[in-house]
Amino acid sequence: MNVIVTKDYQEMSMKAFELVKKVVTENPSAVLGLATGSTPLGLYGEMARDHRENGTSYRDVKTVNLDEYEGLDVTSDQSYVYFMRENLFRHLDIDLKNTNIENGRAQDPEKECARYNALLEVMRQDLQVLGIGSNGHIAFNEPGTPFDAQTHVVELTESTIKDNSRLFARIEDVPRRAFTMGPKNIMNAKKILILANGANKAKAVYGLVKGEVTEQLPASVLQRHPDCTLVCDEAAASLL
Ligand code: F6R
Questions:
Q1: 191 CB less than 6 Å from ligand 1?
Q2: Mean pLDDT value of segment 167-182
Q3: pLDDT at site 167
Q4: Residue 190 — φ and ψ, nearest 5°?
Q5: Percentage of residues in the chain having pLDDT higher than 90
Q6: How far is it, in rounded angstroms, from Cα 18 to Cα 35?
Q7: pLDDT score of 21 more than 90
Q8: Which atom of ligand 1 is nearest to the CA of 131?
C-alpha cells in the first residue's frame, strides 16, 4: 500500500484531487467509484473548483457509488444519492444518466443487489474512492463481513449509526439498514484511493496499514490490493 501523510485535511483533499484528476485526464470516460461522508467533501470541492476554473470535463465519466440507506431516495436530503448530486454532480458537467447508486427504495432488495452486481461487472471502477469508519468499515461493510461478499443489505452497527447520526435531526431517524457494495466489488477496482482524517480514525488506519488482514477490520483487505493508496492527515496517521 502506498501511504501519503499530509499535514492537514486541506492538503489531504488536494493530494486526493490530483490522483483523481490524473485518472480522468488520462481516460475521459473513466469509471469512478465514489463515496459519501465528510471525508471526501474537500476532494469533491476541489473537483468542482477545477471544473469551474480549468474546464476539466466529466461529460463521459461514469460513476458508481458505494452505498445507500434502505428506504431513502433522492427526495430525502439524507440519502446518499441526494448527497452526491448536491456536493458533486451539480457542480460538474456529468450526465446524471451516467451516475449509479443502489436504489434505496427498491421493492425487492435481493433483486436490486443482483442488478448492482451485474452493473459493476460491466462497469469496473478505474478508481475507487473510499473513506474509513472508526471501526475499520469500508462502505457499509461492518466488522465480520466476509471478504468475498458482493452487494448486499446490511444491518448497521450501533457505532456506525452513532457516527452517522450527526447528519440527522435525531438518532432515531438514522436508517437501520443499508445497501452496500461488498469487499469483493471494492477489491475489483483497478485502483483504490482511501482517505482518512482526524484522530478518531487513527486506530482504524493502523489496522488498515499495519494490522492483521482480518474480516474483523474490513479495510485490512486492502493490503491485498495491488494498487491501493492511502492519503491521510497527520492525526489519522499518528499510530503508524
Ligand atoms: C460512505 C461510506 C462510509 C464512509 C465512512 C467514513 O459512502 O461508505 O464507509 O466512508 O463511514 O465516513 P466519514 O467520511 O463521514 O467519516
A1: no
A2: 93
A3: 82
A4: -70, -35
A5: 93
A6: 17
A7: yes
A8: 10
